[in-house]
Amino acid sequence: xxxxxxxxxxxxxxxxxxxxxxxxxxxxxxxxxxxxxxxxxxxxxxxxxxxxxxxxxxxxxxxxxxxxxxxxxxxxxxxxxxxxxxxxxxxxxxxxxxxxxxxxxxxxxxxxxxxxxxxxxxxxxxxxxxxxxxxxxxxxxxxxxxxxxxxxxxxxxxxxxxxxxxxxxxxxxxxxxx
Length: 178
Description:
The chain has a single domain (3-8, 33-175), classed as Four Helix Bundle (Hemerythrin (Met), subunit A) (Up-down Bundle). It contains seven helices and two strands, in the order H-H-H-H-H-H-E-E-H. The chain has helices at residues 3-23, 28-31, 42-63, 75-89, 98-101, 110-130, 151-175, and strands spanning 141-143, 147-149.
């Protein structure tokens, strides 16, 4: 795996593991309960994060098969990523795309979603390990809000997306401690 890709992936994975470690002391039933009606529980947030990552792995896996038709990313994509990261820092909610948001179940089993997320992360690592260097700067990933970006930018998006939801999880747990 490319050194920079590896570094970004490890940061993302360490963020996930650190959050899960913090939640070890909270009962799964609390993590499966929405903080208020109509809002996601911690389990539902993890379901959403896992689904977004799983769909990303599938998309990149498909796109890498057609490397000759992919363009190299540039300044335009960098600027779009900066804008997206700023949007993730804003204090108000953002609407997730329907294909990622649309079917979050009302009840999500916490241990099961954690196990599924681990499988997805393993698949992401395997995919990143398999990518040739010549594809890393090509627009191999489609982020719904900003369009096609490269692998480095995809990992930056995943980290920003995770960080935003981590704050949400921490607020939920603070309001409903174990």
